[in-house]
From TrEMBL:
Entry similarity comment: Belongs to the aldehyde dehydrogenase family.
Catalytic activity annotation: salicylaldehyde + NAD(+) + H2O = salicylate + NADH + 2 H(+)
Highest classification ranks of the organism: Bacteria, Bacillati, Bacillota, Bacilli, Bacillales
Presence of keyword ATP-binding: no
Pfam short name (any one): Aldedh
Occurrences of domain Aldehyde dehydrogenase (ranges): 17-472
InterPro entries: Ald_DH/histidinol_DH, Ald_DH_C, Ald_DH_CS_CYS, Ald_DH_CS_GLU, Ald_DH_N, Aldehyde_DH_dom
Protein name (Swiss-Prot/TrEMBL): Salicylaldehyde dehydrogenase
Listed PROSITE patterns: ALDEHYDE_DEHYDR_CYS, ALDEHYDE_DEHYDR_GLU
Pathway: Aromatic compound metabolism; naphthalene degradation
Entry superkingdom: Bacteria
GO molecular function: salicylaldehyde dehydrogenase (NAD+) activity
Active-site residues, Swiss-Prot/TrEMBL: E251
EC numbers: 1.2.1.65
Length: 483
């Protein structure tokens, strides 16, 4: 049993949690216990927030050179610890080696992009309507940022909030997902510690939602709550934060569509669809949920798609050739098995896969799916591909928009300009022409519409989210008042 991460990280110290409750960390592929950690309770939460609050002003006042120097050290440490991070992603979240490499590179990109933020927090000077006065607009950090990490892309999606928050002068308290306490939390304590960041900047608390979940959001110290996860939980966080006028950054669920037009390169579209559907077993907010194909090429597309999917290696995520590994836990595997069963009862046809062993599900393909079926209306979050048929482009748009979600999407066509015109009609925060839906670039705005979230991550949009502006009016001469 690995016992290297069995303590909380508070104010630069590794401490045993104060709760009587424990959380087991289980390898989803082998079912073996990695370790058990004593949970944090409210007293630990208070200490973590106090540490972040007390440290923040001094951190905000450090020079650009000091902050960027520490971020460069963080890059160096991440590269030194790359194999360790990848190993943890494989054994804790069921990541395949391919997915873990993609995730590491994405997180590294976030850190490198964030390194530029201290020089990009620009202010403005505006003229005034009053004589001898100028208006200065300063961009300043919000203070303490609460980060709730997810289990699916735990390292990258937690880093996506932590690095920008720190780079803009904030401090953070992280609550990792219980299924991935290391890769969405505790490993950040060791990385930032090894890089030489001051104590109190990064704090990590592993605790049960029933014990510290609500208080993590309602606590008076954090000014903004950053959460990546389900729409259901995100909505509750938004409601609780809104009561106390806290800002939120919410990246939530998706029901993403790939539209394959009749002029598309079918072979390329099928290959892209397989990647966008089955990377990390489909457990990605941006993963393809519905593959919507023109009636003229429907059968041919399916033929190409099955040919690709049938060759996808699935099994042990530690095997570098594996593309589809286990889902996160047995509860999810059971849910997905039931999803397939229900879909067949509603009229879908299972044409490949469907086999489930433990947490491992064979890549699965359903055809003859209609947009009113449960599987088309809800986020799948598993290795099940659904293929729908459309008569014309108006129906394709109707299918794409016939969902409460609006995160990502894809359109395949040989007419790129027409693809863009069609993309403008889809209610989604992100969409890609002749590419699949799983894309994230550190300098490009990431986020969704409708039930897929609030706000944008990455680049200048992250600077906007994790800072606020302050107006200081400066009067250079005495102003006369009509008194």
């Amino acid at each position: 049993m690995d016992t290297s991460y069995t303590k909380q990280y508070i104010n630069g110290e590794w401490k045993v949690g104060s709760s009587e409750k424990t959380i087991k960390n289980i390898n989803p592929y082998t079912g073996e216990e990695i370790f058990t950690i004593r949970s944090a309770d409210k007293s630990d939460l208070d200490k973590a927030y106090e540490a972040a609050y007390m440290t923040q002003p001094e951190w905000a006042n450090k020079t650009v050179a000091e902050k960027q120097g520490l971020f460069q050290k963080l890059v160096d440490v991440m590269l030194e610890e790359k194999e360790t991070i990848i190993e943890w992603l494989i054994k804790e979240s069921g990541s395949t080696h391919i997915k873990a490499m993609i995730e590491f590179d994405a997180a590294l990109g976030i850190v490198k992009e964030s390194m530029s933020f201290p020089t990009r927090m620009k202010g403005y000077i505006f003229p005034s309507i009053f004589p001898n006065k100028e208006n200065r607009i300063y961009r300043i950090p919000k203070g303490v940022v609460a980060v709730i990490g997810p289990w699916n892309f735990p390292f990258h999606l937690t880093m996506r909030s932590v690095a920008p928050a720190l780079a803009t002068g904030n401090t953070v308290v992280v609550k990792p997902a219980s299924d991935t306490p290391v890769t969405s939390g505790l490993i950040f304590g060791s990385l930032f510690e090894k890089a030489g960041f001051p104590k109190g900047l990064v704090n990590v608390l592993v605790g049960k939602g029933s014990e510290i979940g609500d208080e993590f959001v309602l606590h008076p110290i954090p000014k903004i709550i950053s959460f990546t996860g389900s729409t259901e939980v995100g909505r509750r966080i938004g409601e609780r934060a809104g009561k106390y006028l806290k800002d939120v950054a919410l990246e939530l669920g998706g029901n993403n569509v790939m539209i394959v037009l009749k002029d598309a390169n079918i072979e390329k579209a099928a290959k892209a669809a397989a990647f966008g559907k089955f990377l990390h077993q489909g457990q990605i907010c941006m993963a393809l949920n519905r593959i919507v194909v023109a009636k003229e090429i429907y059968e041919e597309f399916i033929e190409h798609f099955i040919k690709i999917v049938s060759k996808l290696p699935y099994g042990d995520p530690a095997d570098k050739s594996t593309f589809v590994g286990p889902v996160i836990n047995k509860e999810q595997a059971d849910r997905l098995e039931e999803v397939v069963k229900t879909s067949i009862e509603q009229g879908a046809e299972l044409i490949y896969g469907g086999k489930v062993e433990g947490c491992l599900m064979q890549p699965t393909v359903l055809r003859n799916v209609s947009n009113d079926m449960d599987i088309a209306q809800k986020e799948i979050f598993g290795p099940i591909a659904t293929i729908l048929k459309f008569e014309d482009e108006e129906e394709a748009i109707e299918i794409a928009n016939g969902s409460p979600y609006g995160l990502s999407g894809s359109i395949f066509t040989e007419d790129r300009h027409h693809g863009v015109e069609l993309a403008m009609k889809i209610e989604t925060g992100m969409i890609h022409i002749n590419d699949q839906s799983v894309n994230d670039e550190a300098h490009i705005p990431f986020g969704g519409e409708k039930d897929s979230g609030v706000g944008r991550f990455n680049g200048e949009w992250a600077i906007e989210k994790f800072t606020t502006v302050k107006w200081i009016g400066v009067q250079s001469g005495y102003r006369e008042f009509p008194l």
